[in-house]
Amino acid sequence: MAEILVLVDHADGAVRKPALELLTLARRIGEPSAVVLGAGEAAASVAAKAGEYGAATVYVVDGPEFDEQLVVPKVDALTQIAKDKGVAAVLVTSSGEGKEVAARVALRLGSGLITDAVELEAGANGPVATQSVFAASYQVKSAVSHGVPVITVKPNSAAPEAAPAAGAVENASVAFTGNAAKVVSRTPRVSTGRPELTESAIVVSGGRGVGAAEGFAVVEKLADSLGAAVGASRAAVDAGWYPHSNQVGQTGKQVSPQLYVAAGISGAIQHRAGMQTSKTIVAVNKDAEAPIFDLVDYGVVGDLFEVLPQLTDEIGAR
Amino acid sequence: MTLKIAVCVKYVPDATGDRGFADDLTVDRDDVDGLLSELDEYAVEQALRISEEADDAEVTVVTVGPDDAKDALRKALSMGADKAVHVNDDSIHGSDVIGTSAILAKALEKTGFDLIVCGMASTDGTMGVLPALLAERLNLPQATLLSEVSVEGGPTGTVKGRRDGDAASEQLEAPLPAVVSVTDQSGEARYPSFKGIMAAKKKPVEELDLDDLGIDADEVGLAGSWTLVESADARPARTQGTIVTDEGDGGKQLAAFLSAQKFI
Ligand SMILES: Cc1cc2nc3c(=O)[nH]c(=O)nc-3n(C[C@H](O)[C@H](O)[C@H](O)COP(=O)(O)OP(=O)(O)OC[C@H]3O[C@@H](n4cnc5c(N)ncnc54)[C@H](O)[C@@H]3O)c2cc1C
Ligand SMILES: Cc1cc2nc3c(=O)[nH]c(=O)nc-3n(C[C@H](O)[C@H](O)[C@H](O)COP(=O)(O)OP(=O)(O)OC[C@H]3O[C@@H](n4cnc5c(N)ncnc54)[C@H](O)[C@@H]3O)c2cc1C
User: Fold this and answer.
1) Which of A133, A177, A246 to mutate to test the interface with B (most CBs of B within 10 A)?
2) CA of A103 to the centre of ligand 2 (A)
3) How far is Cα B53 from Cα A121, in angstroms, rounded to an integer?
4) CB–CB of A299/B241 below 8 Å?
5) pLDDT tier at A80 (50, 70, 90 boundaries)?
6) Mean pLDDT of A148-165
7) Phi, psi at B39, each rounded to 5°
8) What ipTM does this complex have?
9) How far is the CA of B78 from the centre of ligand 2 (A)?
């Protein structure tokens, strides 16, 4: 069967959920193999997990280059493995960096590139990707017509399904090409203990209506009662009430959870671009005319400082 | 020595309008107003700030797009850029990102640069990959998705910046020439002044076509694309569900809904 190369994102030895989704999607179009870059001693556990989710082979490449230089070492590794093994497609998670890696790999392979796929199926002429475009107002289906398809897939596009495979580890050596920006220092993001925004099944977001940084406490309490991630609108982020890494929207994170709760958010097009593909949408807003209500499955016209705590209490009482 | 900064700017359909696709499945540019991609305003802003910090610098804005794309160039010139380059050729219509990056790379080589500044993504294609493709094609280091950027040491100096990624915040450094892209966290873009708008009318706009760049028409456009759009369908608009007004039990009603949906 056609070999589908999947770049497996990991953090501190743990495979990130979107990588398991990619392995699951890869099985629809061929036989997945995984690429694990720079995992150090944790490589074995990352490789084992990739095997559990269907990787027949796991190519492992380690080296300080992955930490010291931006993007290019990953491009070097992925391109060389893709060429050596003659793979039929390359799949990468749609993150800022993932898309950049995929783009340069595509160019080096002489291949077309599709980004931000939300669905992947086998077609007569290779994989067909579905994209959700123009703030989710259109569904586009497209295929790569030249070279080995390189496709990036958004997190939460498929439910990860285990499918044990050999997961045979193969250490690959790569010639690094250099000419990259140097990473002079790195400050890891401090974990809040809450789920990752893009991976979470439920997201509770606050906007300008939250009024102040302290106001986010009611949003966080509701999120914790639901086991949800916390998001924010750009207005709340720009005001300094919540970190930019939690921004949902065009220039923030694109989320597509089972449930999205928007509190004190008006529903500007740029915000909608990041959450409109959520399965169920709920909003709490004082203004009955707020455009967010056009999208909701359930909306409460009211003060979020009344509604959210009452909802949190109700959840606690169940 | 003059620090030559080239800024890539894209002309896009207004995101607040009714965007859609034409019969050939390319972006419908006739039925909705176009403008300078809002995220490229941040690129122009950072280029202007870098140029103001430098001893001697020149900012050129570069676009690949149809006739109307001149509006995007004018906006950037009125913000303060010195001159503009417009690559315009009927054969470009329908280019994918691989094709667009090939054209832009050639235009940038012709224009000359020490630093290329891009936005983080266009507001229509939103791929966020073009800067990386330029770095690959021009064999330059990329320092992309920066929320803070500065240049030290003029044309042979260094570009520095901060990249706030998912897992970490990174401090980056690269020797010039280099490609950077900046996020909307990099600093509010300035509004063109009346003086700026008047001055922009007199600033030079160089027109280039594919011949000028030595690119064959069949390498780009719809025919030369390495991707193929098979269909584009409007999603059914989300229909409004239940809306209740809080009269003291809004939270309880919401809880009942979430419970019925099995979220709690
Ligand atoms: C290039 C560009 C990119 C952008 N990217 C993003 C992005 O990624 N994400 C994003 O979110 N925005 C983005 N924006 C900004 C976007 O246009 C809006 O300005 C922003 O989404 C507004 O945030 P908001 O809904 O929180 O604030 P507002 O629009 O001010 O809405 C606040 C809402 O809170 C309600 N409210 C007030 N008090 C209460 C209360 N006590 N209880 C209940 N409701 C209350 C009000 O009725 C109002 O509807 C971008 C803009 C541009 C130009
Ligand atoms: C909805 C939609 C989906 C698309 N999906 C794909 C796809 O999956 N694969 C594919 O190959 N093509 C795709 N395209 C086509 C692609 O968007 C164009 O080829 C485009 O010119 C480059 O991609 P981008 O606009 O997404 O740029 P981005 O990579 O998002 O742009 C980043 C920066 O590059 C610069 N830039 C981008 N375009 C230009 C330009 N024309 N002139 C000057 N500077 C520019 C700007 O500084 C911009 O901020 C898509 C287009 C649309 C409208």
Assistant:
1) A133
2) 12
3) 51
4) yes
5) very high
6) 96
7) -75, -20
8) 0.96
9) 24
